[in-house]
Write a structure and sequence with these properties.
Blueprint lengths: L1 H10 L1 H12 L8 H17 L3 E4 L6 E5 L5 E7 L19 E3 L2 E3 L7 H16 L7 E7 L7 H9 L5 E4 L2 E2 L2 E5 L2 E9 L6 E6 L5 E2 L2 E6 L5 E4 L3 E2 L9 H7 L8 H10 L15 E2 L2 E2 L4 E10 L2 E9 L6 H9 L2 H4 L1 E9 L2 E2 L5 H12 L6 E4 L11 E3 L2 E2 L13 E3 H19 L13
Parallel strand pairs: 3-6, 3-7, 7-23, 8-24, 9-22
Antiparallel strand pairs: 1-2, 2-6, 4-5, 5-25, 9-21, 10-19, 10-20, 11-13, 11-18, 12-15, 13-14, 16-17, 18-19
Helix pairs in contact: 1-11, 2-4, 4-11, 6-7, 10-11
Protein name: M20/M25/M40 family metallo-hydrolase
InterPro entries: Bact_exopeptidase_dim_dom, Peptidase_M20, Peptidase_M20_dimer, Peptidase_M20A
Organism: Candidatus Fimisoma avicola
């Protein structure tokens, strides 16, 4: 059966890439409700073209695509909203279009997560058009608020039955069954000399390290600080433009926000804040280190607002994180409030669905293991969900950065793996050992 799904997907490669391009061209930036809805409607129309059953939440913020029927449901959880484009001058290709070059597709959302949306849809199309019998329902859930507060997932859970298990193709292989937590803390600084600031701006999404910061003081020239962007779950791989600006405070003016950021946030593991004990273990288990980074900054009427994005390990809560910031409110003249917090998750490696994912992945010639993800995905939204693909360990990951891309080889390999898994999990054959990939 796998030979048939592999061959079908190869045959549909050109059409798949065309659909990804059309979806990327819809500028569904997070918070743009109209365009996010338009992106969902495009996915829905294509699913209907393929003869799949579709429905929407009442708020039109989630599209649900179903195939098959049965007492159990296998879910695939994706999203069409994307982060901002960052610095337009740092893009080699048009950010809100899809360009094919160097064996990859380029553009905002190609990897996170519009490419995987269409990969998943074409997998369901393959299973349907090949007439593969299913004993379970397969449900593709496409959200539109993943890059912000997940109101879409709340609406979905209120209006639809949750799948029994599944995955989100919003990260990397092999299997990420453990995820750090996520929190955003808003710091509002009342600067005594804030009237000196005529312009202050950096960052366009709370979960992206900014590559450019701009400041202008009264009577002075505008100064731009350039850095390197990255996903905020990997701040150590970036060069944060906000931090660079704050380290230059003696040249500018020693504002409280600059002093605080330089002292407490210049090291992404924030030892000065003491959010945890600084080790990578919790109760004897590997949990990674907590990280924090300033991601968005602005000023208005002398008040400076800073968003701090935090990826915390087990043992931290939103309340405990907020308390650490509040210890310094008086000294630096700010107020801290918690905008959003999601706890870390750990899904048991013993789940049959995860073991089947492992077997399928290995049958395609890859080494599988269970991993910790520093990022935050929709896997936190539903029980027994993990992050699984589409990136492979050797791929270049430019998610949330300028020149976001996904290789065509990765697209096709991931599609075949997903199809093999969903056929096995969804069919009456159940979680048996999949056939070995041909050399």
């Amino acid at each position: 059966m796998r030979k048939k799904t592999d061959a079908y997907l190869e045959q549909k490669q050109e059409e798949l890439l065309k659909d990804i391009r059309e979806l990327v061209r819809i500028p569904s930036l997070h918070g743009d409700v109209q365009n996010c809805t338009a992106a969902l409607e495009y996915v829905r129309r294509r699913a209907q073209d393929f003869g799949l059953k579709t429905s929407m939440t009442a708020e039109k913020d989630v599209c649900v695509i179903e195939l098959g029927d049965g007492p159990e449901t296998v879910g695939v959880l994706t999203h069409v909203d994307v982060v901002g484009i960052g610095d337009p001058q740092k893009w080699t290709y048009p950010p809100l279009d899809m360009t094919i070059d160097k064996g990859a597709i380029w553009g905002r959302g190609t990897a996170d997560d519009k490419g995987p949306v269409m990969i998943s849809l074409y997998v369901l199309r393959a299973i349907k058009e090949l007439g593969i019998p299913l004993k379970k329902k397969i449900c593709l859930i496409v959200g539109s608020c993943e890059e912000g507060i997940w109101t879409d997932m709340e609406h979905f859970k209120e209006q639809f039955p949750a799948p029994d298990h599944g995955f989100t193709p919003d990260g990397a292989f092999p299997i990420y069954n453990v995820e750090k937590g996520y929190a955003d803390i808003c710091l509002t600084f009342s600067e005594p000399e804030g009237c000196r600031i005529t312009r202050l701006l950096a960052g366009d999404s709370r979960n992206t390290i900014p590559s450019r910061a701009v400041i202008q003081l009264k009577g002075g020239e505008e100064i731009t600080y350039d850095g390197i962007s990255a996903h905020s779950s990997a701040p150590e791989s970036a060069d944060n433009a906000i931090i660079k600006m704050c380290k230059d405070r003696e040249k500018l003016y020693p504002f409280n926000f600059m002093k605080f950021i330089d002292r407490f946030l210049s090291d992404c593991h924030v030892p000065q804040l003491k959010l945890d004990d600084g080790t990578e273990f919790y109760n004897g288990e590997y949990a990674g280190k907590t990280t924090a980074a300033p991601t968005v900054i602005s000023a208005e009427n002398g008040v400076v607002t800073v968003n701090v994005n935090i990826r915390h390990r087990f043992g931290n809560t939103g309340e405990s994180i907020l308390a650490r910031f509040r210890e310094h409110e008086r000294e630096y003249n700010f107020k801290a409030r918690l905008i959003e917090c999601q706890d870390p998750i750990m899904v048991s490696e013993k789940l049959p669905s995860l073991r089947l994912m492992q077997q399928v992945y290995e049958s395609y010639g890859h080494k599988s293991e269970f991993c910790l993800a520093p990022g935050c995905t929709y896997a936190k939204a539903l029980e027994n969900f993990v992050c699984w693909g589409p990136f492979f360990p050797d791929d270049v990951d430019r998610v949330h950065m300028e020149d976001e891309c996904l290789s065509i080889k990765t697209i096709m390999e991931a599609a075949k793996i997903y199809a093999a898994y969903l056929v096995l999990d969804g069919s009456e054959s159940g979680p048996e050992r999949p056939e070995q990939a041909e050399s």
